[in-house]
């Protein structure tokens, strides 16, 4: 039935994944359904907002399909959802098995700690990619039906940014459990970094003095450039930073997990 | 110290900050025996076992399982062992069958007939979800996953917890069969009666230190018998006290109460001429021996 840790972990993630899929599709549905009203609405009141803020949330383009999706989904709700999903899975996968001691039995087999760690990480990544696919397909289908003028390449690029944000902060949470074995630490660290990253992203956009530092925050690389900002097709190179960050977090924690005491 | 030992532990130590959980324990468990690792709760038995399993890194010393280093050659060692942790649990949402199948895959495939046979012996239905099982039935799942691949070495931490007496007996039969098969069983317990029945060798751990490692039958020679003899003719005290191991002689009418350390042969030989009408003896058990070891003056 479960050939290895990867397939077993996919099964573990299944219920949560279904819930998140339903929630995400519902959110997207709600946003798309509201589109005709926004499209025709007079949005000149948004001009009151400072220019930097209008740029951050695509307010100027809110009457366009991509601009609307950016402001409602890709620069706000979806990053939060993907990061919460990523951190939730990342903090739980190793730590729950260590807490309940089910990990002891797994490690008494020829399974290595490295293999255990990598298989579980791969399953969590699969879940995030899967959720990204759900976003892509729902938006593509619904936006076409609502005639929003949104290209598949735009949707794909923006969805990928969401997946990468989830992967990065999920990987940080996961690595924290690999190092400490504690879910609470993992959540505290990854949530703090995510909030700090987002706040800094906003600040760097609004405050001139911080403008040259905006590259520090992952949010700049995910949604500060590329489809979520200007609706352009194509995947910016800066996405790589997020992927590299995720891989690095896991790679650095692996030898620590290999060597530390398991359980207490 | 040969490489035919099933388990070879050399001065293994585990410190947690200032606390010493295991203090320089050395063990040599030959192949094909049942080894009972005894000690009260908190003595360090589980910590020792988790070091054997490569879950905890020893602070000092080392251990070998079937010739493999327990820390640096973990995965190789684990191919040939079966492990039952002290607080065994599995995944609530999986059935026992799914769980055992999962572990079987991780072990590269297990003869499923073994699993079915063990489940029948232990009276366990495999279709039920683990979360719905009683404590005793959960423990059965733990036993099956340890035994199902017929490992060369079984390491079992308090294996009979939660088992009803009938199943306990079945389990001990499984242990004896493993030994008959030439395989080795290392079992920890604080319930001495079951170890007494099945173990060949016992090691006694207290506060992290190994007090002794001895064959069970030689341990019983160290034992202390409390006897009450009723005589036809009361023998003089000096004659009884001259017999080897006799002490604390108390005469009471035609009865004599005394204590014999070790063999009662000599006492019976000197007492017989006086006509032993009846005799009662509190038989030594490991518990008495074990508790005796906490008092420095015994042994």
Entry keywords:
heterodimer; A: mainly alpha; 11 helices; B: 299 residues; Rossmann fold; Alpha-Beta Plaits; 2 domains; six-stranded mixed β-sheet; disordered C terminus
Structure description:
The complex is a heterodimer of chains A (264) and B (299). Chain A is mainly α. Chain A is 76% helix and 0% strand. The longest helix of chain A is centred in the N-terminal third of the chain and has 36 residues, at 5-40. In chain B, 33% of the residues lie in helices and 31% in strands. Chain B has two domains: 5-215, P-loop containing nucleotide triphosphate hydrolases (Rossmann fold), CATH 3.40.50; 224-283, 2-Layer Sandwich (Alpha-Beta Plaits), CATH 3.30.70. Residues 294-299 of chain B have low confidence and may be disordered.
Helix content of chain A: over 70%
The helix/strand class of chain A is mainly alpha
Q: Quaternary state, please? A: heterodimer
Distance between the termini of chain A: 31 Å
- Strand fraction band of chain B? 25-35%
| Number of discrete helical segments of chain B | 11
| CATH fold-level topology of the largest domain in chain B | Rossmann fold
Shape of chain A: globular
Radius of gyration of chain B: 23 Å
Give average pLDDT of chain B, whole number: 89
Unreliable runs of chain A, pLDDT <50, ≥5 residues?
none
Sheet with most strands of chain B: 6 strands, mixed
How many distinct beta strands of chain B?
14
Largest interface: A-B, 24 and 30 residues
The H/E string of chain A reads HHHHHHHHHHH
Structural class of chain B: alpha/beta
Strand content of chain A: under 5%
CATH architecture of the largest domain in chain B: 3-Layer(aba) Sandwich
What distance separates the N and C termini of chain B? Answer: 26 Å
SSE run of chain B: EEEHEEHEHHHEHEHEEHEHEEHEH
Give a nutshell description of this structure:
With 264 residues, chain A is mostly helical.
Helix and strand arrangement:
The complex is a heterodimer of chains A (264) and B (299).
Chain A: H1 5-40, H2 51-56, H3 65-93, H4 95-100, H5 102-107, H6 113-145, H7 152-180, H8 183-206, H9 218-224, H10 227-230, H11 239-259
Chain B: E1 5-16, E2 19-30, E3 34-38, H1 45-52, E4 60-65, E5 68-69, H2 74-79, E6 81-84, H3 96-106, H4 112-121, H5 135-147, E7 153-157, H6 165-180, E8 184-189, H7 192-198, E9 201-206, E10 209-215, H8 216-221, E11 224-231, H9 237-242, E12 246-252, E13 255-261, H10 265-271, E14 276-282, H11 286-294
Parallel strand pairs in B: 3-8, 3-9, 6-7, 7-8
Antiparallel strand pairs in B: 1-2, 1-4, 4-5, 9-10, 11-13, 11-14, 12-13
């Amino acid at each position: 039935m479960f050939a290895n840790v990867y397939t077993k972990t996919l099964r573990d993630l299944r219920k949560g994944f279904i819930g998140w899929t339903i929630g995400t599709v519902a959110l997207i549905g709600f946003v798309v359904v509201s589109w005709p009203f926004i499209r025709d609405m007079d949005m000149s009141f948004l001009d009151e907002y400072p220019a930097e803020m209008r740029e951050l949330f695509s307010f100027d383009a809110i009457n366009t399909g991509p601009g609307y999706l950016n402001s409602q989904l890709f620069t706000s709700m979806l990053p939060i959802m993907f990061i919460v999903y990523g951190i939730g899975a990342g903090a739980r996968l190793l730590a729950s098995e260590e807490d309940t001691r089910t990990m002891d039995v797994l490690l008494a087999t020829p399974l290595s700690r490295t293999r255990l760690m990598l298989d579980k990480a791969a399953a969590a990544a699969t879940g995030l990619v899967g959720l990204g696919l759900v976003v892509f397909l729902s938006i593509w289908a619904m936006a076409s039906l609502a005639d929003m003028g949104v290209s598949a390449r735009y949707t794909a690029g923006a969805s990928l940014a969401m997946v990468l944000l989830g992967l990065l902060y999920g990987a940080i949470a996961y690595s924290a459990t690999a190092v400490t074995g504690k879910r609470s630490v993992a959540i505290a660290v990854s949530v703090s970094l995510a909030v700090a990253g987002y706040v800094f992203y906003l600040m760097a956009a609004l405050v001139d003095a911080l403008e040259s530092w905006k590259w520090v925050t992952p949010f700049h690389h995910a949604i500060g450039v590329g489809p979520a900002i200007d609706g352009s097709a194509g995947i910016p190179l800066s996405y790589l930073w997020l992927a590299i960050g995720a891989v690095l977090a896991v790679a650095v924690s692996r030898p620590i997990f290999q060597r530390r005491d398991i359980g207490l | 110290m040969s490489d035919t030992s099933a388990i070879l532990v050399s001065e293994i130590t585990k410190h947690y900050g200032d606390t010493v959980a295991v203090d320089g324990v050395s063990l040599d468990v030959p192949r094909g025996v049942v080894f009972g690792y005894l000690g009260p709760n908190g003595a360090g038995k589980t910590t020792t076992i988790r070091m054997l399993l490569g879950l905890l890194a020893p602070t000092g010393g080392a251990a070998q399982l079937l010739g493999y280093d327990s820390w640096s050659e973990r995965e190789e060692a684990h191919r040939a062992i079966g492990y039952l942790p002290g607080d065994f649990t599995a995944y609530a949402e999986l059935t026992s069958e799914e769980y055992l199948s999962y572990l079987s895959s991780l072990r590269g495939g297990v003869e499923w007939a073994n699993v079915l046979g063990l489940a029948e012996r232990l009276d366990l239905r495999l279709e039920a979800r683990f979360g719905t099982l009683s404590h005793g039935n959960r423990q059965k799942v733990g036993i099956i996953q340890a035994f199902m691949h017929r490992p060369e070495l079984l390491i079992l931490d308090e294996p009979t917890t939660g088992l009803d007496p009938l199943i306990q007996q079945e389990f001990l039969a499984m242990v004896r069969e493993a030994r008959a098969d030439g395989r080795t069983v290392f079992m920890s317990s604080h319930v001495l009666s079951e170890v007494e029945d099945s173990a060949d060798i016992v090691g006694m751990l207290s506060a992290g230190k190994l007090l002794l490692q001895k064959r069970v039958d030689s341990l019983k020679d160290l034992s202390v018998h409390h006897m009450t003899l009723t005589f036809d003719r009361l023998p003089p005290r000096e004659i009884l006290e001259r017999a080897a191991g006799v002490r604390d002689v108390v005469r009471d009418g035609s009865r004599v109460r005394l204590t014999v350390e070790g063999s009662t042969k000599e006492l019976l030989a000197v007492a017989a001429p006086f006509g032993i009408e009846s005799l009662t003896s509190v038989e030594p058990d490991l518990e008495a021996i074990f508790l005796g070891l906490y008092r420095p003056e015994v042994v």
